[in-house]
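Lay summary. Proteins are chains of building blocks that fold into shapes, and those shapes determine what they do. In this project we predict the shape from the chain. Here is one chain we studied, written as its sequence of building blocks.
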Amino acid sequence: MRTEFETLLVNVDGPICEVTLNRPEVRNAWNALMHHEFDRMLDEAADDDEVKVVTVRGAGEVFSAGHDLKEVASGYASVGKPGGWDPHRVPQLPRAWYFHKPIIAGVHQYVGPVAMHALGTFDFVIAAEGTRFSFEQTRMGGGGNGGTTMVFHFPMRVWKKLYMMGGWMDAEQAREFHFVQRVVKREDLDAEVRRWAEEICRVAQRQVQTAKEGIHRQYELMGLGNMELVQNRNSGHGSKPDMEWFQKVMDVGLKAALAERDGGFDQDLARI
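And here is the predicted shape, written in a compact code that computers can read:
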């Protein structure tokens, strides 16, 4: 890989490109820079003929908290619009969807909404026991659901509960929906991700890529590509309560704002 990244650690080990989300001080929250760097990393991996597979892990306590809500809040505070959003972006599915080589993620402890959307465009997900897959952000401060593969991963009422009620599920529940392929002990996660990566490298590379591209085109023909248009028309941001909550993030801090937001909700009821 040619580029040094600020938000990612990248190590190419033979045919395996090992990527680590590297913002542990903010629980690997995805900000605009991480999105940009992740896409650039995929561009470079696509051009590297030696790389056959990309693995993705998260540094520190959790895989990823999801979207960087402090960045969103700072945008409201400075220009009256959510930070990290590009108004000139052409509607399309995430770059990872079009990456022709396989992507395998190993997740642990916590996976927030934006991180779940990213996993939805990857090929395989291995989860550590006890991992929480969360859409609680949609209670306040969440974005829209355009451009997502989730409608194909989950039954309608599961998807509604996640997005309309800020629901969550554990790793075993995610495996039942085949959103996750394996659930392993935390100490075995790295080895299991490596095992999957080495296994897929044994398959003829052209066969893997042709299969992936064909499967993705099939889902696009079923309407997946058009779903991104919804995101630009209705992001979910901009309502008065939404803006007031992000101002609270600026005034009292994210941790306190989250505690106030989630305090009145029944966590057991929110569970899928």
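What the prediction tells us: Strands lie at 8-13, 16-21, 53-58, 103-107, 110-111, 124-128, 132-134, 168-170, 182-184.
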